[in-house]
Amino acid sequence: MTETPEVGLLAREPGERNYLTNGTTVRSWLLTTDHKRIALLYAAGITFFFFLGGAAATLIRAELVTPKGDLLSADTYNRVFTLHGVIMVWFFLVPSIPTTLGNFLLPLMIGADEVAYPRLNLFSWYLWLSGGLLTLFALLAGGVDTGWTFYTPFSTLYSNSHVLLAAAGVFVAGFSSIATGINFLATIHLLRAKGMTWMRLPLFAWSMYTTSLVMVLATPVLAMALLLVFAERAFGMPIFDPRSGGDPILFQHLFWFYSHPAVYIMVLPAMGVVSEVIACEARRRVFGYEFMVYAMLMIALIGFMVWGHHMFVSGQSPFASLVFSALSFVIAVPSAIKVFNWTGTLYRGQIRFSTPMLYALGFVGLFTLGGLTGLFLASLPVDVELTDTYFVTAHFHYIMVGGSVSAFFAGLHFWWPKITGRMYSETMGKFAAVSMFFGFNFTFFPQFILGYMGMPRRYHEYPPEFQPWQVMSSTGAVVLAFAYLWPLFYLTWSLVKGPRADDNPHDATGLEWQTSSPPPTENFASPPIVTEKPYGYHPEGFAPHSAAPTDQAQTP
Amino acid sequence: MMEQASTLAPQVDRIFWMLTGISISIMLLVGTLVLLFSFRYRRGTNVPRGPVPERLSGEIEIGWTAATLFVFIFLFWFAAALDTEQFKVPKHAMEIHVVAKQWMWKLEHPNGAREINALHVPVGVPVRLVMTSQDVIHSFFVPAFRIKQDVLPGRYVEAWFQASKVGTYHLFCTEYCGTDHSRMIGGIIVQSAADYARWSSAQPQGDSLADQGAKLFVQMGCSGCHGGSAVVRAPSLAGLYGKPVPIAGGGFVTADEGYLRDSILMPQKQVVAGYAPIMPAYEGTASEDDVVKLVAYLKSGKVK
Amino acid sequence: MTDTALQKPWADAERQRVATQFGVWMFLATETLFFGGIFLFYTVSRVEHTAGFIAGARHTDVWFGSINTVVLLTSSLTMAIAERAVRVGAVSLARAMYAATIALGLCFVTVKGFEYWQDVSEHLLPGRDFPIAQTGASEFWAFYWTVTVVHAIHLTIGLGIVARMLLIPRDQLAARWTTAEGTALYWHLVDVVWVFLYPLLYLAGR
Residue C83: what pLDDT? Predict the structure, then answer.
């Protein structure tokens, strides 16, 4: 062994080299092309934005405890909910799983050394950061008050806020999304290890593939929508202005053509994580692997055809509304299949209720409830009543927060030992998972009731009959806030004091577990060869997924 | 149970509660299975756990996929059927013109009565709302009637309802429109026929919308060309409303409110066949309120 | 075909070539969707206000537009020759063709500059002095300014990408044929977008 100095906490043994110890200067981090380091750079960024968006949420929930607008002025409230939406969508949810877990795990899972375009990967982080800084600047300069949806003509002709800065920030961040998507598509097509055929890919890899398809094809349309808003607002180009013959609804079509597929960008990765965690913790092959793959492909494809369901009351033609409604019902089917299959994976398993499993099961429940409420919104006359009310707010928070964020936490905990080489406290983790589930339901279920009662969205004052449900929601939010803050504490603690992790502490299949925790920079000592289908779990124990020629046989 | 104050409300609610019932059933099904399997198959229990036969799992997969698809398509059809009925506005509906602006609702009755953030209507009578915005997109939402329609600048949109219960019901703006979006609220006051008549006659007796429009027609110079001029050839407007109009370039359009509004504000958009495009545009000169009155006049049958 | 300069993580030249093509084609797909958005704006405006839109379109200068089309198509020819030259190792020809492409690109930008100057002097910027009253005319010009500026930005970025080829030392040029291929694909995209824009901007109503 070469004489390398002890680097303390990050190394398992003195002189051990892994991706964390391989270069300790700031420069080696900021100019890295290692996909694992880039994943951590993104993780730092999205953590910051998550808590910033969360602070905005706290202000919103605090204001809504009373019917009067007594905490914030109307303009301030409008800027706060806009900030919450813009930050949470583009600077937390869209990047979250793909840029952190995806960047870290995708090459490992397919047996590759790197992503296809490592320098583009680093550039994507800088793009994202630049977009974030522009948006922060918009916030510090006084904020934006258009809502995250930037509807015209309010955003182009009437708003007295920093629309241009915010639009520019999102525009730049969009290119980061596109770059990540192109990278992942090329990686999966061209860098799979020998024997890793398409139908042997782990479902998380498939979820990265389908998510990337959507990122690459949908985001450019958002870019153009924002560019046109910029042209009208900054340069007076008459595009959406009805006084010049423009059509404000055109903006809505362009915006939602991206923003509906965007919700699948936010949920497909979560589905991938959940499949991995449930299979491992139930020690069972995923039920109906092929159907799970086709379901994700169908969701990605049909996801491009349903955007008009956000526009049923916009003045859109009734015929168009009928078509969008029908397709929205059709897209519910593959999601339902996945829920049934996750349930089926539990059948005859050997289920362990670890922290990741609790989050994953929470996802199944919350996603199912959120998805079912989507049926209400796909039904034309019911949507006419419920759209633009709190019912919609509750629906998408169930899926994006109850769903995607729970899944993100599931993945974070499941792969924490692999990424950091440390184990966190299971007791604390379980406590956080259960708190999140209950806190979440207390926060958002009352909002379905509020929507049913007719409370509109984006109201900072409201008639007093809505107050009891608002108070319940805000109370739940306190528990939810705790559930999000608590992992910050015990996960950080694990970095300092947590026991060192083995290569494969969960006895999981998957190539990422065949290398050390944390992995070396080059991922694998020698290129793996795949000989079996994924999820080779059996009730009795662990069977190896694949063995590279120099590995010793694993024992269960 | 939410207040049902229109003829539409019970029908919408029927679909809503049916969906709720289906959702509860599916949640119970999935929830029970998950909890059951979690309990029975938790690590270390002594229950049989052979592999699941391939063929069985294949049949189950196809089975529940097909079942889900059929249920969802049925739900789509069931809900859509109600909506397509709702498209047809009843003939002889009472017309109310709505102009939305930041941050208030202006509502005008045909007899000229004007209301701000309030609308008196008689129970049991179909009401047709012809709406436009002066600035940004707003949305006219009456939860108790189960109606909602975005109100757009530059265009007329329609909605209709028939109130079925006397009372006062919330009117909300429900498309974010700026600072005082939450304050752009009002009430729909549904009255018995007698009370409504009493209210209506108690309103300040001014000209009806059509009569105000007749005055504007002269004041704004429309009659100079459309009143039978010797100098300029302009299409006749007598009896125009609802008729097909031949358009330069081929084809016909129906002279509805939207056409009349566009013809006043942006006459170059669709020029009548056989006429020169010389009508000046009133965009910026005629306000939305003015247009409402002019359109009422053109619809009134009083145009010569 | 000569030896290739290999980038991480590619183990062989063929794979790297496929990867470059794959990446550039996907990027071109995003550009198609990007421009698609504004072409939708063109379509909607033209359908909703046909008379005014076309009236506005008649004020474009078909001479400037046609000259630029010839210039850009020629630059695509020089680019195609350059790429081929790199592949067969004809370094001097390749460099000359890259220089010609840049020259033609700069010519395009210059002609465009004159055209903009003329448009501005005719007050064809939507705003108070806009000369055509018909509804739809100003929308045409909104499209014109926005799309030509976006196209020009893409072209300018393209000039940078082509210039990069000239910065590669002569003895390494032949090995960088995958880079040459990617550069050519990008340049051809800029050209193809213009091929669609030309009739929309200069031939509408004529």
Answer: 95
CB contact under 8 A, B277 and C136: no
Q: What is the CATH number of the domain that holds C66?
A: 1.20.120.80
C133 inside domain: yes
Q: Does B89 contact A at CB distance below 8 Å?
A: no
**Interface touch C22/A117, C-beta < 8 Å:** no
Give pLDDT < 50 ranges for chain B. none
C195 lies in which domain range?
13-203
Q: Please check whether residue B30 is in contact with residue A368, taking contact to mean a CB–CB distance below 8 angstroms.
A: yes
Number of domains chain A contains: 1
Residue A9 lies in a domain: no
Query: Does residue A18 belong to any structural domain of this protein?
Result: no
Task: State the average pLDDT over residues A165-192.
Answer: 97
Residue A553 has pLDDT above 90, yes or no: no
What is the Cα–Cα distance from A458 to B176, expressed in whole angstroms?
Answer: 7
* Domain interval for residue A446: 32-542
- What is the C-alpha separation between C88 and C190, in angstroms, rounded? 25
Q: Which chain B residues are closer than 8 Å to C49 by Cβ?
A: 266, 268-269
Nearest-CA distance A289 → chain B (Å): 11
A224 Cβ under 8 Å from any chain C Cβ: yes
| The two three-digit tokens of residue A494, written as one number | 């694990």
Mutate to test the interface with A, among B17, B54, B59, B72 (most CBs of A within 10 A): B72
Record the pTM: 0.92
Predicted confidence (pLDDT) per residue in A206-233, tens digit: 999 999 999 999 999 999 999 999 999 9
Give me the DSSP letters along C55-103: HHHTTS-HHHHHHHHHHHHHHHHHHHHHHHHHHHT-HHHHHHHHHHHHH
A20 part of a folded domain: no
Number of domains in chain C: 1
* DSSP codes, B180-222: TGGG--EEEEEE-HHHHHHHHHHS-----HHHHHHHHHHHTTH
Tokens coding B204: 């300040």
Average pLDDT score over residue span C2-6: 63
What's the CA gap between A205 and A293, in Å, rounded?
Answer: 10
The per-residue pLDDT for range C83-128, each reduced to its tens digit, is 999 999 999 999 999 999 999 999 999 999 999 999 999 999 998 8
Task: Indicate whether C4 belongs to any domain.
Answer: no
pLDDT at A542 over 50: no
Q: Tens of pLDDT along A251-298?
A: 999 999 999 999 999 999 999 999 999 999 998 889 999 999 999 999
- Does A132 have pLDDT greater than 90? yes
In this complex, do B41 and A389 lie within 8 Å of one another by their Cβ atoms?
no
* Residue C35 is assigned to a structural domain of this protein: yes
Whether residue C59 is contained in a domain is answered as yes
For residue A37, is it within any domain?
yes
